[in-house]
Amino acid sequence: MNSPLRFDGRVVLVTGAGGGLGRAYALAFAERGALVVVNDLGGDFKGVGKGSAAADKVVEEIRRKGGKAVANYDSVEAGEKVVKTALDAFGRIDIVVNNAGILRDRSFARISDEDWDIIHRVHLRGSFQVTRAAWDHMKKQKFGRIIMTSSASGIYGNFGQANYSAAKLGLLGLANTLAIEGKKNNIHCNTIAPTAGSRMTQTVMPDDVLEALKPDYVAPLVLWLCHESCEENGGLFEVGAGWIGKLRWERSLGAIVRQKNQPMTPEAVKANWEKICDFENANKLRTIQESTGSLMEVLNKINSDGGVSTNHTSHAASSTATSGFDGAIGHKLPQFSSAYTELEAIMYALGVGASVKEPKDMKFIYEGDSDFSCLPTFGVIIAQKSIMGGGLAEIPGLSINLAKILHGEQYLELYKPLPRAGKLNCEAVVADVLDKGSGLVILMDVYSYSGKELICYNQFSIFVVGSGGIGGKRKSDKVKEAVAVPNRRPDAVLTDTTSLNQAALYRLSGDWNPLHIDPNFASLGGFNRPILHGLCTFGFSARHVLQRFADNDVSRFKAIKVRFAKPVYPGQTLQTEMWKEGNRIHFQTKTQETGDIVISNAYVDLVPTSDVLAKTPSQGGDLQSTLVFEEIGRRLKDVGHEVVKQVKAVFEWHITKGGDTAAKWTIDLKNATGEVYQGPAKGSADVTITLSDEDFMDVVLGKLDPQKAFFSGKLKARGNIMLSQKLQMILKDYAKL
Ligand code: NAI
């Protein structure tokens, strides 16, 4: 048996408690230990007259039974006075049941101004006045329970009750917003639409029915909703005769009836009418964000697809998983490729905060840097097309509202450093679908290949809000699990202030969602202003780890896992807290301004330094260019002093293979009799030249003109570029094999 729900010490105000439903509530609360204010104006059911007898009688009844109660005879329109009685008598106010009411039934055309106004004054304005008077007290004590009394007449309409229906549904609107505003202070507001025999209903119901519909069959719901242990907030309930049901809104999937750059016409509305009104697979929306969020999706869809033709199906407003996930799991998205050059790699690095302010960042933002590298987390950009561009909406067995998806977690693993430029082919597969109750989690695995070689693997965890609870499994061995950070002070903390333009810059890397730049979209999504991309914060954090624990050496990066916890606004300062545990760097990221954790349970796995050394290219052994350099070295032995006189420069070569630097060579034609050796220049190089092993060979074999190679971007030269013209001579004369 559950323990009884008690209200000891709670101060409860019930308006209109001199009879009918209000009396039943007052008695029931008092019986369970509450201190009750019995308010009643004491007039007739049309709101005519007043008196103290009704309230006094109920107070008397409560006291007789050993309870505590005081009377108040003011109209609810004087809310302050009503609440003052509670404060004066008991020193606080915990619970308000807005119940007082009257009727002025007339068919619509015959409603006088007075009939309209008094109904609104007593029901809607009265509930507002009383609740407002109690609100601040509830806020301060961080507890409050409020009941609004609506009516089936408001929900469904009822002949002869236009004034009453309007006011009664107005109360629901009031309650909906109070539920939102009160939530953070533990003030809950719920609405009931009761049916009970009372003097109000005695003219419309036969006696035996009146008798059967006792107010006592409504009161227990009110008590439960007002109990401190009840978490219900913003609910609407029909209640009577011992039955209780909850109501909610339903919205059809609807139809998009407009195309990009085309006028919207009434004919298109007519053509789609059946679909607009079709409630099959309808949405059950709970928040304004859900409602407006789907409009965002509509706008996105119209803007990106050029609009949905009037005959097409819209995925925009659907949200529920229709069946099991069998068709979804293992579903492969169409293959796609991601090509990029240094431009994209640099734009990304700038987007995640790499800066000329930090000399060690130059390698990420200057293509001429001798160690130019693509940030490892660029790997998510390569794969991100899988979750954009509508692929999620095409997964069989799932019907996903794209407006309701959140990027929950991210895992990225690199099998070798990303090439500085390249084209990777990507295969995306739905690895699993989990039912978390409050939503579904879709695990999207994306494998990116250069030719046949697997370069990186991503797992996107996409949370689909509100589509869960259909009995699917909760766990999967496919999940790359997030890991809690150690319970000690961080070993290192790095901070970076994002710029106001951070999201505007980051989106150039391919996530064009207007949520990150357009204030109107942001407010549709429920944000004060555009928010930063979660993957942008992810990039900042990974950079911090790489900088602090791997000296920005991209070959040390193995994998990263993060959980996105809260949004970040551009301009906020990101603070990455890091813990080193072997080769795993645990981290979490906070916004310094609020202290909120925005990325949680995250880690970066580093390749142990010993492995990196082992993996360093075998000193160019498998490169064709190696032979050439060795040959140049041999020939220089004879004629070195002559050449040194002519050239007077040190050339450093970066020979790439598959986009990575595979070997470095130095041709020293400046010092003594010249020298060719493997590795970077011992002193400083006058020119640094980067080109692939293949292109190097083409240059040597005369198939590729070095100048043309330079202008086409195949050959990169840094330093005294004019000197490189002398190369042609060296290569021609000394490299003939
Ligand atoms: P009732 O007439 O027995 O109780 C209403 C009480 O409110 C009366 O005692 C009356 O004196 C008091 N009152 C009226 N104007 C007031 C004012 N300005 N200030 C303070 N007190 C005032 O009626 P019943 O049936 O108990 O209704 C309670 C509430 O439930 C009302 O809001 C009514 O609209 C609502 N309701 C009742 C239904 C039913 O089947 N009984 C159906 C739907 C809604």
From the structure above, extract its key features:
single chain, 737 residues, alpha/beta, Rossmann fold, Thiol Ester Dehydrase, Chain A, 4 domains, ten-stranded antiparallel sheet, 22 helices, 23 strands, 32% helix, binds 1,4-dihydronicotinamide adenine dinucleotide
Descriptive overview:
Helices cover 32% and strands 23% of the residues. Helix 1 (20-31) links the parallel strand 1 and strand 2 (35-39). The model is unreliable at 306-323 (pLDDT under 50). The chain has 22 helices and 23 strands. The chain has four domains: 11-247, NAD(P)-binding Rossmann-like Domain (Rossmann fold), CATH 3.40.50.720; 266-322, no CATH class; 336-611, Thiol Ester Dehydrase, Chain A (Roll); 617-734, SCP2 sterol-binding domain (Nonspecific Lipid-transfer Protein, Chain A, 2-Layer Sandwich), CATH 3.30.1050.10. The N and C termini lie far apart (95 Å). With 737 residues, the protein is an alpha/beta fold. The structure holds 1,4-dihydronicotinamide adenine dinucleotide. 1,4-dihydronicotinamide adenine dinucleotide (NAI) is lined by residues 15-16, 18-22, 39-43, 45, 47, 54, 75-76, 99-102, 122, 126, 149, 151, 194-196, 198-201.
